[in-house]
Fold this protein.
Amino acid sequence: MLLIDALQEKAAVVETPHAEGVEIQWLLDESRGAPHFAMRRFCISPGGCTPYHRHHWEHEVYILSGSGILVLEGEEHPLERDTAALVAAGEKHQFRATGDKPLKMLCLVPNGPATQRG
C-alpha cells in the first residue's frame, strides 16, 4: 500500500507544443508500484488548454474543480466539478479551462507509451 499527499507532489509545466498554462503532477505510476495504470493531476490555468491531439490509448478524466470544455472530435462538451469523461483510444481531443479559476482534473492512463516522460 502507498499513501501520498497529492498537494505536496511537485508540479511540472507541460512543455508539449500547443499546451498553454498546463501543469502536471504524477501521483501514482509504475515507479510507485502501480502495475497497470498511472494517475496524474492536471491544473490548467484560466484560458489555458492542452494540445488538440490523439493517441493510441484511452484515458479517464475526473474534474476536481473549475470549469472548462472537452473538445472531442470537433464537438464541445462542458466540464464542471464532478464530471467524469472517457476519451477512447484514437479520439482527437483537447481540454480547455474556460472559467476564472484553474481547471483541475485527475487523468488515468494505462502504463506503457502513455506514461513515457521526456
Remarks:
- Strands lie at 12-13, 20-28, 37-49, 59-65, 67-72, 75-80, 84-87, 93-97, 103-110.
- The chain has a mean pLDDT of 95.
- The first strand starts at residue 12 and ends at 13.
- The two ends are 28 Å apart (CA to CA).
